[in-house]
Each structure stands twice: as structure tokens, then as C-alpha cells.
Amino acid sequence: MNMFGMDDWQALIADERVLVTRDILRYNDMDDNGHLNNSVFTVLCESGRVDYFRKRVTPHLPGNTFFVIARIAIDFKAEAFYPGEALTATWLEHLGRSSLRVRQKIMSADKLVAEAEGVCVVMDQTTRKPFPIPDATRAALEPLLREG
Amino acid sequence: MNMFGMDDWQALIADERVLVTRDILRYNDMDDNGHLNNSVFTVLCESGRVDYFRKRVTPHLPGNTFFVIARIAIDFKAEAFYPGEALTATWLEHLGRSSLRVRQKIMSADKLVAEAEGVCVVMDQTTRKPFPIPDATRAALEPLLREG
Amino acid sequence: MNMFGMDDWQALIADERVLVTRDILRYNDMDDNGHLNNSVFTVLCESGRVDYFRKRVTPHLPGNTFFVIARIAIDFKAEAFYPGEALTATWLEHLGRSSLRVRQKIMSADKLVAEAEGVCVVMDQTTRKPFPIPDATRAALEPLLREG
Amino acid sequence: MNMFGMDDWQALIADERVLVTRDILRYNDMDDNGHLNNSVFTVLCESGRVDYFRKRVTPHLPGNTFFVIARIAIDFKAEAFYPGEALTATWLEHLGRSSLRVRQKIMSADKLVAEAEGVCVVMDQTTRKPFPIPDATRAALEPLLREG
User: Fold this and answer.
1) Which CATH number covers residue B77?
2) Would you say the C-alpha torsion B44, B45, B46, B47 has a positive or negative sign?
3) C41 to chain A: which residues are within 8 Å by CB?
4) Cβ of C75 and D74 within 8 Å?
5) Do A32 and C37 touch (CB under 8 A)?
6) pTM, entire model
């Protein structure tokens, strides 16, 4: 039922708009069921998201801004286990007025284990209110957009 | 912008179909931004979900079944801080063929800090495949259903 | 073998020099063995330590100082389980030149589950070096000292 | 003050009795102070310990045994930061009647960030009591012993 295979993964990460972030799973990531606890997937999504923003988004934003996470949604596709690694592919799916939506796929042991979406809002450090994405930032980010 | 106030919360938890689960926030729940890390909200959702299932769902299910989480979605409404508590209201929103969808609202310091949805699938311990919710279970759970 | 019983606990917490901090255990605190993961005990110790410092130590320290943890040692006495609570008793055992040593006992389900020791160093925010505990602070803290 | 340098580290890990375990730090590992929370060091110690036992100890033990952790002690030597990695060196320091003591050094960003000791007890799965280390196991483990 999990139709996304290694070929699909290779095609996905060959796309330069997609950033891959690697995590090493920890014994402590497992729960009572002997598999990765669902909260760890949130942590892996965050690893990918922070990595993506640091490398591809923040350099194009004014210094007096920061991000808050407004929404996360994760679809669990398969169990993941320690010992092992997780590879998280992250890309930009949508640019709103002050927000950005990223999509993510997480692979572990050559299997798709989760798909996720995250919405972040650019905030003004002074007013603590949403900060409209400037035109120059938008121009720099638009080439990174990729359909789900 | 956060229109859900203490009156709405009191009305919500007065509904017997809604279960409230209490958590105490920990210093370690905070991240570099000095507020609760987003992954902690997943943990709070899980606290509420596990509590709800243990008390209201599992007693109506055959013994050879268990739950897996298929999807979580969290909308962040406000920051939450240590020291403090979190109260998570959980209720059943939808019964599928083998799945249940719960909705949740999390309050901290008298403020709505997150809304969440979780989809769980009943699994057969032997076949490790989805297990159709039996009629008797369905009859026991239907009175618990509550619209979003 | 675990000789510390409820009577000993009651006597301990009747001592005003001892601060009790309450935590609610979370499903996510358990690991693959179906009991609290050892790292959670560190988190419980930190809950107690931060609570103790916030209430009893920091008010007596100059504003330009902060604490770093220099050492923790935990002896595990019994397993702890979800659902349940943990009560952490914390007291001051020793005052050094720039450091404080606290001792802790953690109870869960009316059983001693861990004993711990933590050494914290007072630091100067400006120089980022150890800050000698001032005489006035020492005078305020000495009455709180309690032998292991 | 932190006298253990890269040369010492290289010499340490050149010793075949020492096992190095790698972890990738996560954004979520940081706390309010912008550095790795102390509980994460416990998780890193566990990563190293579990890795060591899985590879070097468990293969020499009867199948009806398991380990429990009886004690951990961690001395914090320097702050560690995200993004980055942690390398944990683990070796066997002492064999007791039913227990093993390991020592660990954790490096991050080419700096010694922590030293740790962990005591594990071999348990009998049936009786849930300490299981004396068999002579054959002892003979296999003794060559791995290394002074602190």
C-alpha cells in the first residue's frame, strides 16, 4: 500500500529544490511499542525544517524577523526502528503573504515512514506580528517552489 | 485573534463526552526560543489521546487489537511557557470503518495554545492489518461522538 | 532491598528545608522496556532543581549571575511507570566557593525510584566565569543546608 | 581548564577496546539557554552504552538475561550546540559479580563536553533478579577492560 519506493525517493532528492537532512535514530526515540514514538517524527520534521530555513530562507530575509510554526500535519506511513537513520526531504510548496508552507517526506531503512506539511509564519521581532514577505525575498524563493 | 476564551473552554469541558487530561510542563519542554517546543505539543496530544483511549475506547474493543496513529495535525494558537500546566480536552469526532478521529484543544495559562486532530487505526494483533470496528464497539462509541 | 519507605518519605518532606516538586508522567516517557527511560529521571531531577533554585536560591543572588550544571549522578532504585506521578524532594547539601550541591529523592507510586546528586556552579553573566557566592547569599542559604 | 584535547581523543579512540558511537544533534536538543539540555547528555550516554552492549557484551551472555541501568554520573565539561554532532567513546572499566561499569567521553565540535560513568546490572528474565556473570562471559569480556 506504501507505493513510494526507492526510485521515487531518488528522483525526489535529485531535484535541487529539495534539501535532505540526515538524523541518527536514538534508543531513547523508541516507545513502549518498540518503534519510534510519534513525537520523534515531529522532531525529525523540525530537524529538516530548521535546516531548510537556515540554508535557503533566512539568508533572504531582513535581520529583524524570525519564524514561528503555525501548523504541522504528519501522515504516518510505516514504523521506524532503532538502530537506524532517518532522511528527511524538505521543499517549499507555497508562499503566502507572511507564511511559507513546506512539504516533507521521511525515509528510514529504505522505506517511506512519514509525509508531513508545515506552515511557518515570518514575524517582526519588534512588533511580534506577522511580517509580509518582501518582494526581494519572494523573488529569491519562488524558484524553489515545487508542487507536492 | 484568539477568539476561544475561558467561557468557551468551560462550556467545552462541561460536555461529558469530552475528557480533560492534565500535564505539568517541564523546564526541559522549552527550546532555544524560551517557549514550549512544538514537539512537546505532540507529546501533550498523545497524553490526552492515550488517556481517552484507555478510559473510553479500549474497554469496548476485543483483546486482540491495538491502535496505531495514522495522522496528527496541530494548529498552534499561542506560545506556552514553563512553569505551568497544560489541560488537553479530547473527544471523538468521527468513526470510520477501522479508524477513529479525535479532536483536541490544549489550554495553558487560561489560553488556547493549540488545536489538534488525530486519526488512529484499530489493528489486529495477529494479522497486523486494520481491524473493522465491531458493531458492539460502534454502538458503545456512537454516543461519544461530538462535532468539531 | 529498597529500605526507604513511606514513613521515611513523610519524615523527609516534613522538613521545611526540603522542597517537593510534582511531575505527571507521560506516555512518551516510557521506552522499549515499558518503563520510564533513564533520561526521564534526569528531566525529573531538573524539574526539582530548577524549582528549588527559582524559589530558594536565585532570590538571594545578584542579578548578573546564572547557574550551570557541572555534575549529575543518579542511582536508580526501582522502575517507574506511566500512568502515574513523580514527586521529587530536593535540598541543599553543600555550599562550595562558587558551587552548590543538591540531593534529591524521587518517589513514584509510593516507592523510592531514584536518588540523585547535582552540582551547580554560579556563573558571572559578563565574564562567563565562576562567581564566588557572596557572603549575604551564603548567610541566607546556610540555614537550608541538610545532611544527605 | 579543559585539558583533554584532540590528541588525547585520537589516542583514546585508537584503542580497540573503545567503541565510538556517533549522534547528530537536533534543534530540539537545545533548551532555553541555547545549548544542549543536560538530559540530552543522558541520551547520548545511552546511545553509546546500548551500542557497546549490543556489539560487545550481549553476544557473550545467555539469552534469558537483560540489562538494567543502576547508576549514571555525568560531569559536564563544556557546552554543546546545534547544529553539530556528538561522538561518544565507551569502554568497559570494571566487571563486578553481576554488574558492569562503563566509562564514556563525549566530544562535540572537537571539544570534550562530558565524561560519564554508567553501571549496568545483568538480570535474569525469569526471576527478575541479578544474574551472576558466567565464567565464559567473564573470560570474553576481561580483555576489553580498560582503566579510566
Assistant:
1) 3.10.129.10
2) positive
3) none
4) no
5) no
6) 0.93
